[in-house]
Amino acid sequence: MSESKKDDFEDFNINIQYISKGLTDENTLITRCQSTIYLATQCMISDFRVRMWSDRKMEKLLCALYDAPKYQSLGICTSMVMLILSQNIKNEDVDMEFLHLLVNLLKNEVIHKNELSNSQSLTLKQEVRQLCGKLQNQNQAIHLNLDNLTIKELCMEVLLNLPSDCYSAWFKGILRECGILEQIVEVVDMYSLHVSNNRVKSSYSIMNLLLRNLKLLGNVSKDAKNQQYLLKHKDGMLIDSLIKICQVCDIEIPTSSFINDDSPTTMLLKSLIVSLNILVCLTHDYGFEFSAQGTILTEKRLGFIDVCLRFLLQVPAHIPDEEKLNLIFLELFLLTNLVESNMYNRKILFEAKIQSCPDHFLLVLILEDAHSNMLHSLIAGHVGILLGYIMKGCKEYEMYVCQRWHENNFKKIIIILEKVFKFLDISSAVIDSGDIINHVSYTMTYFKKLNIAITNAEMDPITSS
Fold first, then answer.
1. 377: Cβ–Cβ under 8 A, 6 or more apart, which residues?
2. What predicted TM-score, i.e. pTM, was given to this entire model?
3. Mean pLDDT taken over the chain
4. Per residue in 414-441, is it b (16+ CB within 10 Å) or e — as a string?
5. CA 154 – CA 14 distance, rounded (Å)
6. Measured in whole angstroms, how far is the alpha carbon of residue 183 from the centre of its chain?
């Protein structure tokens, strides 16, 4: 180690020891607050922050602030430290100590509110305000009101900055139990209404906040208890919010330009992709008692299936190439969820598109280039799955589709489904494709039974058992 690096190493350790000594609960509260502010100031330096994480020093310092949630002054200073730490944070940087402290601060159970003199409190608030202002100069936390910073607002910003891999089962559950999940749903409802009313005239700040809160919901919704909570909360308020976003995108995206990553239309598209991911999650049949509620809630929202079909058939032509397949697959997953066990949605979808343009919906998407391109085969296979669930258990639908199908049988779609099944079976070692394989297997068996019925009845298909 060179002399300069050795000196830097020693200076860093001396600095850490100084901060650590000032944070312990043996000190007066004002000393601990001042040490916490000093830590926050040091963390504004990128090299210091990186080294704190890499040398695992941060865990020890955060442990010393275990009681910060009890004190108004120490709590807001600690929240400022965590906000600075959360900028460009990596999953490996976030340990249980960090998450426990964040959750306890978010609970907002302050016991001691006036523990310092007025002058001491004002000085600390000013220092927190200045640090937050420096973050905003770096285009971070830009929506925070510097004149009204609170523990909760700072910690909510930290929560929104966390990488998705931080959301363990424990963390997802604790966010629900502490009421944080409810607050996020309320925020999404508020901003989705604003965007619904103002569309592309909405400010970047509002759209960015909406997107970040949606991403958080996307992370926590992959949990059975959270799914039940999100569906039950205020009779499916989140479903309404997500559908509002979809409706705005349905109107704006086909007629607007994608100028850059921060343009209103691009922000809308990003919000749409996350919203569809959440809707897919909330409408999937997981087998538990309440899992069908997602499709029941969507059936009450008139016109939503028409919007979904436009996203599948029309909107991809108007969005950047890198998002086309993402949108198509998400819509196929969502529509399949909506009709898998819901007869009402099957009827709506059948009447909306199958009867109005069977050639477009059934033939072009399913058969065109499907045999020569695996990606097209996957799309075709998913359309076949969707079609199978629409027809399931209804002789009228089976007969209608068969009479208009290629060569009046389902041989081609069976070949495509077999190809997709083999691909997914081989890929299952590296990707989680269990649910999709089950869908493909069911649909493949269903179409084979139909073909046998067609042959035996001379073009008059019967409902499979």
1. 370, 371, 416, 419, 420, 423
2. 0.87
3. 85
4. bebbebbbebbeeeeeeeebeebbebbe
5. 29
6. 16
